[in-house]
Amino acid sequence: TFMAVNEQYYANPASIHAMGVESNALLMRAREQVADILKTEAKNVLFTSGGTESNNTAILGLARGNTHKGKHVLTTEIEHLSVLEPVKQLEKEGFEIEYLRVNKQGVISLDELRAKIRKDTILVSMMHVNNEMGAIQPIFEAAAIVHAESRAAFHVDAVQSFGKLPLTFKGENGPDCITISGHKIHGFKGSGVLAFRKPMQWQPYAFGGGQEFGLRSGTVAVPQAVALAKAARMAVETMNERSENYRNWQQQLRAALAHFGDIVHIISTPECAAHILSFSVRDIKGE
Fold first, then answer.
1. Within 13 Å of residue 187, how many CA atoms lie on the same side as its CB?
2. Dihedral Cα 102, 84, 182, 278, nearest 10 deg
3. Exposed, middle or buried by CB within 10 Å (0-12, 13-18, 19+), for 54?
4. Which of 28, 32, 118, 194 is the most buried (most CB within 10 A)?
5. Which among 262, 261, 235, 258 has a CA at the least distance from the CA of 246?
6. pTM for the structure as a whole
7. Closest among 73, 246, 57 to 157, alpha carbons compared
8. For residues 145 and 148, what is the distance between their CA atoms, to the nearest angstrom?
9. 172-193 tens-digit pLDDT
C-alpha cells in the first residue's frame, strides 16, 4: 500500500492541480476510514507524525485554547513522557497541574478523580493501557465523572490499546480525544492520528498553510496516512483473534517464569492487558 501510493500519488494533496486533487481524494478516503472505525466524522480526524506529536498537540492545544474556562489540568503519575513533559510546560505557563495516583496494580482511583475534578478543570489526560506494566485504566467510568463534574475535555492516550482493546467514540461516555500511533499497529514510524468525538475549542501550535483543517499546518504525508488507515482496519478486524493469542502466550510465559522461583518477580497482574507482561529479574537492571 505504502509503495503504491508513494509511487503513484506523490503530489502535494494541498495543491489544486490534477495530481494534487487525486492525492487529496486518497487522503480523504483514509481519513474517512479511520473516522468510521472510531465512530466519528472525517473532519474530526487529524493525521500526525505519531503518538508524541498527537499527545503534545492535544494537551497544549486544548489547554491553551480553553483558558477562558479555567487553568486546571488533571493527569496521572504514570503517563508517557509525551504527556508528562507538555504538562510540565503548561505548569511553567501558569496552569495548575494535579496528578492522580495509582495503586499497586497501576490503576487510578475513581474516587480520587471525583475528589480532584473541579468546575475550572479544562483538561483530563489519561492513558488507556500503561506501556510498562499493561495496567488498564477505567477510562469509560472516568469519562462519566469528567463529563458530569466539569466542562473539561477528556484526552486518552490509546497508543498501547488501539487495535487490542475495544475503543471508539460511540456512546455517551468515553474519550473526547484519542491518540493513536501508526507503528504500534504495523503502520509506519512517523505516522499517527489525533481524533476527536466532535469539534472542540482549540489553539494550534504550528502555523502555515492551514492543512488538517488549520489544526496542523504542513504538507501531509499521504502514503503514511493511507498505510495507517489500512493497518487500523486490519488491527480492528483481527483484534479478537490476536487478543486470544496474546492471552495464551502470556499464560505460557508466566508458567515458564514461575520455574525460576523468587529470582523472577512478575509485575503485571492477571488483569493487565494481554499483550504486555512486565517482570524483574534479581540482580539485573531493567535496562
1. 36
2. -40
3. buried
4. 194
5. 235
6. 0.93
7. 57
8. 5
9. 889 999 999 999 999 999 999 9
